[in-house]
Amino acid sequence: MKVLMKTKSKLYYAITILVILMSIVACKTPQATMPKDTLKDSLPPLSKDSSVTISPAWREFFQDPMLQKLIETALQNNQDLKITLQELAIAKSAINANKLLSYLLLQQILVREFLKLAATQQKELVMLAQR
User: Fold this and answer.
1) 50, pLDDT greater than 60
2) Is 0.85 surpassed by the pTM of this model?
3) What distances in angstroms separate CA 81 from CA 49, 57, 72, 77, one per listed residue?
4) What gap in Å lies between CA 4 and CA 9, rounded to an integer?
5) SS (H, E, C) the chain
6) How far apart are CA 46 and CA 55, in angstroms?
7) Do residues 68 and 62 make contact, with C-beta atoms less than 8 angstroms apart?
8) Rounded to the nearest 5°, which phi and psi values hold at 124?
9) pLDDT score, position 25
10) Please, are residues 44 and 60 in contact by the beta-carbon 8 Å criterion?
11) Distance (Å, whole) CA 70 – CA 84
12) CB-CB contact of 43 with 61 (8 Å)
C-alpha cells in the first residue's frame, strides 16, 4: 500500500511538472516578421532639408495630369489635413501662451522676493536708527 502511494505521488508530481512545462511552452508568443517594403525603394529620394515640401516629389512620381489634378483637389479638400494644421496652430499658440505665462509668473516671484528683501533691509535700517 505504501509503495502504491509513493508511485501515485511520483505520478502526480510528474504530471504536475509536465503540465507546468507545457503551460510555459504554450505561453511563448510567435515572433513577428516584417514583410519587405518594396514601395520605399521605388519612391524618389527625399531632400534632407526640412524646409522643402513633399509636393514636388509626388508630382514627379505621378506623371498623369488627371491624377495630379485629383491629388491636388484631394489635398485642398482634405478635412483631416485641415484639422491637423489647425491643431498645430493651436498647439503653437498654447506653447507661446505658456512661455508668456511662465515669464509673468517668474517676474511676479522676482518682484515678491525683491519686496521681501527691501522690507527686511528697511526694518534693519529702522532698528539701526533707533539705537
Assistant:
1) no
2) no
3) 22, 18, 13, 8
4) 9
5) CHHHHHHHHHHHHHHHHHHHHHHHHHCCCCCCCCCCCCHHHHCCCCCCCCCCCCHHHHHHHCCCHHHHHHHHHHHHCCHHHHHHHHHHHHHHHHHHHHHHHHHHHHHHHHHHHHHHHHHHHHHHHHHHHHC
6) 11
7) yes
8) -65, -40
9) 67
10) yes
11) 21
12) yes
- Reported as a pLDDT band with limits 50, 70 and 90, residue 69 is very high
Q: Which residues contact 68 (CB under 8 A, 6 or more apart)?
A: 59, 62
Considering only CA atoms, give the Rg of the chain: 37
CA atoms within 13 A on the CB side of 58: 10
**CA dist., res. 109 & res. 115, Å (int):** 10
One-letter identity of residue 115: L
C-alpha cell at position 131 = 539705537
